[in-house]
């Protein structure tokens, strides 16, 4: 523990990394939007391009413009929060993704789940749960099999798989980087002699995996946000 050990507000390294990531995220958006102009400057242009990418390629493309505008304040911050937390895994001195400990992926999955339920209940207040668990056109006796499957797949597996997908991808990337750079340190400073030549290979692999981890960080933010948008869209369809 770094601060407040033994209290509910204890701060360890992963919590500190999350604080730093969110602080940097807020700073970037504040710097990019503090002087909004009709003809945007460099910082404003970057922010607008980034937000426009999420808005057009994830939100509007999945939910349409009308419903997309309603959920834009949720999905855009979700995307950028995840990507900034993921990127801390390749930042020197931090070296761990803020999303590589299970608590945060669970919280994000719960937020996604609540948005899904809210969208369905708001759109179809009297029929959302009924039609989710008892799809139309199924013979009555078959509901004995179909309803438990629908309940597990729709209301349990969706948030669980969201959390696990994000967690395990970031944990796997972190472990690969630790392995490569630990091996580099060992061959270079401990083994010495002829074995120090192996450090070149392990460092090269570490550098390559760092670039790959950069791609994974962005991809996982994209996938998590996209799946949240898809689940919301499924809750809004007229069958409910």
UniProtKB/TrEMBL annotation:
Cell compartments where the protein resides: Cell membrane; Membrane
Gene3D superfamilies registered for this protein in UniProt: ATP synthase, F0 complex, subunit A
CDD domains named in the record: ATP-synt_Fo_a_6
Keyword Membrane: yes
Gene Ontology cellular component terms for the protein in this record: plasma membrane; proton-transporting ATP synthase complex
Any Pfam family the entry gives: ATP-synt_A
Topology in the lipid bilayer: Multi-pass membrane protein
Protein name per UniProt: ATP synthase subunit a
Organism of derivation: Diaminobutyricimonas aerilata
Source organism phylogeny: Bacteria, Bacillati, Actinomycetota, Actinomycetes, Micrococcales
